[in-house]
Amino acid sequence: MRVFLTVIGVAGILITGACSGPKKTLRHTVIKDPAVLEQRADSLFFAAQRSKMLGDFRTAITQYSDYLRLNKNNPTAYYELARLFMEVQNPGYALGFARRAAAMDPDNHWFQITLADAFAVNEQFDSAAAVFDKLTTRYPESEDYLYNKAMFLAKANRPASALAVFTQLEAKIGVVEEVIYQKQRLLLKMSQVDAAAAEIRKLIDNNPQELRYYFLLAEVYDANDRTAEATAIYNDVLRKDPDNARALLGLATYAKKSNDKAGYWAYLTRAFANPTYSIDEKVAYVYPYLQMMQLDSTKVEEGLQLTSLIVNAHPKEAKAYALRGDMFSQADMLDSAQQNYTKALSLDSSRFSVWYQLMWIYSRKEDPNALLALSNTVTDKFPKEFMGYYFKGVASFLLQQYPAAIGALNKALEIGNGEKKFMADVQSLLGDAYHATGQHQQSDSSYEKALLLRPDDALVLNNYSYYLSLRGENLAHAAEMSKRSLDLEPESPTYMDTYAWILFRQDKFEDARHWIEKALQFPEAQQNPNVLEHYGDILFNLKDVTKAVEYWQKAKDKGANSVGLVRKIAEKKYIQ
């Protein structure tokens, strides 16, 4: 090896020396010494081998190709190129080089296998099967070659021929699971259900305690609508294993199809009560109930009963309580949902999704103190989660801690990994919080960003337009947005009041009266002190002073405490 490296080193020096001379001398230099050519070829071959071992397939392809320019008679190089072109997913070239290698050395079984592989990646499965047919003739003791021949015949859509070869293989090696599986699959493709079932029964006869084979047989019957035979198989399983969940679920499915509700529920609850039945499979079975409950109220009780069985069977599994919490949440049973989410977190506090659900429960229960405490815990534990800061902002806003709300919501925006709908909610709530602190420019900017994300958000349109009207700014834009909110929710008395108030600020008193009287047709508006006071303001500017004072007094009686209301009543005049 040292001699070889020394020779290469000398050659390198000679080439370097040649490069130092005139360029035309280099162009006309032709190496004719066979020994040097052979050394260079060997160098390229071993370099290609190293590149291949390092996973640099494209460099290896280049090096093997350069090698073949110096030595076209080495079938191994063609073989290696065939394998490499399969690695880089160039099936056409792979087949060409594989053909060449196999033709140059037809007795090399590795070259023949590579040729079969190349035919396969070119989806020429008949040709691949033919290669293995020759190999089985040459090596009759090989079980692998026979198996591969059968597999390629199956891929070539020649099920009868493939089945014959698998039968030949079975005669050599006896009843083997993989061969039986392939045979039954081919028989089913040929619509020979009974023959396919007979193949699986061979496995059962060989190993009657292996329940997998029973289920495979039941699946064959089930897939071909032979419910009676499948039912019999499941009952066979239950005689061997009375609590087998898979058999119980299979029988539950058949009972449901035949409208046997009692049988369905009996089998299903037996399966779910079994602690050895995987909780993950139980959760996957129950999870669709969360969607079904919205369409069918009878699913609520079923879902809750199933989750109760899961909790009883798996009392130490956090996901059991989390799923039960989801069920209660979906059914609007918030206290029970909270209890189960809390239990889930006591068993496993690493799942942010459960913390999120618990924050959502507190927000729905309108308990801002609890929500703030919980969201503080969540933001400490999961500082990169958007929703923790969002709920922290919600809680702070509800508690009128507006600077804290602004800080939390801006942190949520900084994290910026929330869903689009929540990003719009953040901007909307920021608009409200900035308004509450008198930061009107930031408030307007936040509302504009919210509307860019969700242009048809009626609540944002209403709030933004109302706050503009309070300041008497950009009233045309405010009126446009308020009218749009009414187009979206035409039966909202709150939005009617906003629109009436904007029209009032535009001195369109008759139009304002029309809309506020429309709002007052709703009972909730008749109890709203702000609406009543607005009506009094509109009436006064329409010269109906007596009625205006009457509604100002009603507003005061309902709890209105706006600046100037007492003076309006006392002085019987509108005070802005």
TrEMBL record:
Keyword Protein biosynthesis: no
TPR repeats: 75-108, 211-244, 318-351, 424-457
Top-level division of the source organism's lineage: Bacteria
UniProt keyword annotations, A-Z: TPR repeat
Keyword Mitochondrion: no
One Pfam entry name: TPR_8
Protein name per Swiss-Prot or TrEMBL: Tetratricopeptide repeat protein
Originating species: Chitinophaga varians
